[in-house]
Specification:
The chain is of the alpha/beta class. It has 18 helices and 13 strands. It is 51% helix and 15% strand. The strands form two sheets. Strands 1-13-12-11-2-9-10 form a seven-stranded mixed beta sheet, sandwiched between helices. A six-stranded antiparallel beta sheet has the order 3-8-7-6-5-4. The longest helix is centred in the C-terminal third of the chain and has 36 residues, at 379-414. Magnesium ion is lined by residues 143, 145-147, 341-342, 345.
Length: 461
């Protein structure tokens, strides 16, 4: 239970493991607040403009005053005010109308509304930078297990080579008892289901991206993929046909070896999430390249990729190499986003330009991502990109309006129309125009509140 919940009927016994500041809700609030206060890179542009703009305006104001006081006043007869008052009025009007407060408001207001909108849709954006970059993503890399697929695999094949199904399951479940991997959980669950008693493994070793190793019932047992078997010099060739028949169905084949001999093969299937294919189709429509990155074997990965319409697959990637694959894509000059859920995805999430973590994933992944999807639905990846694009558009509009108002107002305030109409912009009107530009910028940003990412709209294809 992570927050407000409804108990419809029955008794609920709840033990709070975290309270107050440590609850999921408080963490979400903190993330959103931090993001709303953070600067997007585009803000630096506004800051740079303001840094030049402010001194320039002061110089223009002084020049205006000097011009009217020393030269301009004498050029025209019938002046509406005394020399000093007239020059001072023009000076003040320039300062007032050019006040760059709208320029300062342009980005932060849009970021604030944008991140808030994200949170409303179950997309936690940790900072303005992530919000800005998400819209520019050119390649999205998805982890397979737990990201594209549900990550709740089921045992589908039990092929003993030596011994019975129950013995196979006994050894496999006993060794996997020590592992947290989704594949391990599938095997333990199956053993429990079939009422096979299991032992606790001794000298348990987790070999990331390969499998597990331990002593069970006095024998050294290995369970994992081909790489693991090859490393231990255990021949698998004789059973290659069986292994491939499992993999060709999009399932993961796990090999079990006891005392350096292959004694069985276990097939595990993980179904894809119902919305993954739709999300990928939409990304492709947006001209974003989609890549699958997985530690699983090439054949299984290819079947799942085909089912989802993913063309580029990087399979059999060891956990430590996932970040390197991201770096490789970045050297192709592309803006890369990584979507993942596991501990093995964390370095890649950090390395990517935008790291998107699945909220139901491991804490490490959530900590490493700059965007967190609460709802475990990949359509939210699309929504995050759409929201980012919309927010950036708002920011650009805002900057244009803020800057436009000010620059257009300066010549007016300085008295450029005086020779033609015999009027000088009164400081009160200048102040009104200045305030109006702030109001228009803030209201424009607030309009973002009414925005719903296209993919989330009702009746969407
Ligand atoms: P992914 O990138 O899809 O999340 P991992 O890097 O966690 O996958 O694992 C890659 C491969 O290593 C798995 O497909 C499996 O063959 C093997 N493997 C990893 N952990 C285990 C385990 N606990 N038991 C058996 N095999 C494992
Ligand atoms: Mg995973």
């Amino acid at each position: 239970m992570i927050g407000g919940s409804i108990n419809k009927n029955g008794l609920l016994k709840v033990r709070a493991t975290r309270i107050g500041q440590d609850t999921a809700l408080a963490q979400i609030v903190r993330l959103v607040e931090e993001a709303q206060g953070s600067k997007a890179p585009v803000q630096r542009l506004a800051d740079r403009v303001a840094a030049v703009f402010v001194p320039a305006v002061i110089i223009i104001a002084i020049a205006t005053f000097l011009f009217w006081y020393l030269v301009g006043f004498d050029l025209f007869g019938n002046m509406p005010a005394p020399r000093f008052i007239f020059s001072l009025t023009a000076f003040i009007s320039v300062l007032v109308i050019a006040c760059p407060c709208a320029l300062g408001l342009a980005t932060p207001t849009a970021i604030m509304v944008g991140t808030g909108k994200g949170a409303e849709n179950g997309i936690l954006i940790k900072n303005g930078e992530a919000l800005e970059r998400a819209g520019n993503v050119q390649v999205i890399v998805f982890d397979k297990t737990g990201t594209l697929t549900k990550g709740e695999p089921d045992v589908t094949d039990l092929m003993p080579i030596d011994g019975s199904e129950n013995e196979l399951l006994f050894l496999a479940a006993s060794i996997e008892k020590g592992s947290e991997h989704p594949l391990a959980k599938a095997i333990v669950r199956r053993a429990e289901h079939m009422k096979v008693d299991i032992e606790s493994p001794i000298d348990f070793q987790n070999l990331p991206g390969r499998g597990v190793k331990a002593t069970v019932g006095g024998s050294i047992v290995l369970l994992g993929n081909r790489t693991l078997m090859n490393e231990s010099k255990i021949a698998t060739d004789a059973h290659e046909a069986d292994i491939q028949s499992i993999e060709e169905k999009g399932r993961t084949a796990m090999l079990l070896a006891k005392d350096s001999r292959l004694i069985g093969i276990i097939g595990v299937a993980d179904v894809v999430k119902p919305t993954s294919a739709e999300a990928i189709a939409e990304l492709k429509r947006m001209n974003i390249e989609v890549v699958m990155l997985t530690g699983d074997n090439r054949r299984t990965a290819a079947v799942i990729a085909k089912e989802l319409g993913i063309d580029r697959v990087l399979a059999e990637v060891l956990p430590e190499d996932k970040a390197k694959e991201i770096a490789k894509l970045q050297t192709e000059g592309k803006v890369v986003a990584m979507v993942g859920d596991g501990i093995n995805d964390a370095p890649a999430l950090v390395k990517a330009d935008v790291g998107i973590a699945i909220g139901s994933g491991t804490d490490v992944a959530i900590e490493s991502g700059s965007i967190v999807l609460i709802k475990n639905d990949l359509k939210d990846v699309v929504a995050a990109i759409q929201l980012s694009k919309r927010t950036m558009r708002k920011i650009r509009q805002n900057l244009f309006w803020a800057f436009g108002y000010n620059t257009a107002g300066i010549p007016l305030a300085a008295g450029l129309i005086f020779p033609f109409f015999n009027v000088l912009l009164p400081p009160i009107i200048a102040a009104g125009a200045m305030a109006l530009s702030s109001v228009s910028v803030v209201s424009n940003a607030a309009l973002l509140k009414r925005y719903t990412p296209e993919i989330k709209r009702e009746g969407k294809r």
